Amino acid sequence: MAIIDSTLREGLQAVGISFSPAAKAAIAGELLAIGIEEIEIGIASRREEELASLVQAIRATPGPKGRLALWSRCREEDIAVAANLDIDVLSLSIPVTDRLLASKMGCSRSGALALAERSVRQARRSFAYVSVGLEDATRAEPEFLDQMIACIARAGAARVRLADTVGHGSPGSIGRLVARVRERSGLAVGFHGHNDFGMASANAVAALDAGAEWVDATVLGLGERAGNARLEEVAAYLALRQERGAYDLVRLRALCHRVARMAGREVAPQQPVIGEEIFACETGLHLVGLLEDPASYEPFAPATVGGRRRLYFGAKSGRRAVERALGAAGVSLSASGLEQVVRSLRHGAGLGRPPLPAADLPEFARRVTA
Questions:
Q1: Looking at residues 317-329, what average pLDDT do you find?
Q2: Which among 14, 67, 86, 229 has the fewest CB atoms less than 10 Å away?
Q3: What is the average per-residue pLDDT within 329-350?
Q4: SS3 of 46-93
């Protein structure tokens, strides 16, 4: 199980997002340091004049050296551009639905098969590892999908990437598709998911569960339309729930916030893995659990992802939670004093005051009961 980060290719397709060459090199260096196995750094094209210097800058960055990849159309001139660069993987792309073959390529199925075979063979002359992304694979007719996969396998491709181009797959359907392709082909299987229905990260995990070796993701899920699978979610799930992938999640969290600033995006307070408030709690029963055994209501320790537990006391906090918190701070109250504190907290909430941070609770209790 491994991740292909496509922030510098797919992520830059998001409207209004662009990074300087120096920023791209810095992001790539951080991704390698975090432990991401493969980084798709851009598109093979003569128009991408900065590619050679970008590759050089990334190669010169101190730290781990992961695999660098380029995305390429099935065009001779684009493959030739990639062949002159110091990259490890060439990821060709071709549609596999009649709709996209007609509207995007202007060719038939037979023409697409011939083009794919020719392109893979050309790429194999320069690259030991060639990957082929099948655009719109989740809407393709199974028979043609099988033909295309068999074609690229014969031509020497090492991996097939199944793209859920309009994000309409579900974890169940993605799992079935991956399992079917795994059974019928001898290729490594990758999955590229879009987030149009909010399931890209879940679909990526489902693909891995079904036997895919690779999944694509981007920092913050950046990408066209609703974006893609979120790198922080997929990496955290693999590292913490499946114990796969030695990813530095603290460093990944910092990178996410850095990229958010660069892209002019906000990280929502409750954004999974990286949000500032994901370890916040005000609810009474949960507060008691967290005070006694944090693992009772936390899926992983805050420090694991560079987060911080934040306990608050207000309208939803009961006597038991307040008593436990005060006791932990060395404050002991009578039953009437404790009731007075709880009433004051709830009264303040009714007046619109925000809940009280745990660190401020002892002083609040002293004032109320004085």
A1: 85
A2: 86
A3: 84
A4: CCCCCHHHHHHHHHHCCCCCCEEEEEEECCHHHHHHHHCCCCCEEEEE
